[in-house]
Specification:
With 238 residues, the protein is an alpha+beta fold. It contains seven helices and five strands.
Length: 238
Amino acid sequence: MADGVRFVSAGALSVLAILLFIGLIILLIPLLVLGVIGAAFTKLGFSWITAIAVVLLMLFGSYVNIPLYRFKRDMVRVAPDTTAVFGSGSPWAADPVWETVVSLNLGGAVLPVCISLYLLYQAVSITSTSLLVPVGAGILIVALITFVSTRPVPGVGLRVPLLMPALTALLMGMLLFGGAGIPATVVAFVSGTIGTLLGGNIARLNCIRDLDVPELSIGGAGTFSAIFICCILPALIA
């Protein structure tokens, strides 16, 4: 003990116990989050095994991009010793030097759309209620709000707001069907996923030539998190 401060040396067993405890926490947190998300999917009508499988497929599928098409952007280079502003600059070449690949994300586009169609079919079969009009209205409103709030970021891509599409879809489901239930849940789910893809990505494809990005993934980076929340939040009114 020096200056009123006591130094205690921990044994090897104590250090090992602390490391095991930290490792256990690191392991349990993802499992807890996965369980919560899986519970949300079970409220949408999936079994526990199917719900966990769907969640894992979406998470791992977010790393899989399916190329659709590509285009090249013409960039004109100007010699550094000339002044293009005053008309004395002369271009070196007009060859295509930048290529952008437009792709479809498996976890953020393909799977959510497939799940949306499945839930829509199941809801119509169970409730015998036509959901085409409310779903169409929900998709349109979510797409418009997402389109307005999405930010094209040069060098990065399209940034869709994280919570706004899901909250808008949830509100649409509640308003169109007066609260909760299977129809409201399905309207919120389908409106959120498809509306976000349409308004945040597909309707913005005309501006990607100016973003200087090598790849734009529909439902991928910048959009996947918003889509994923759109898949979970409707469980609140299930």
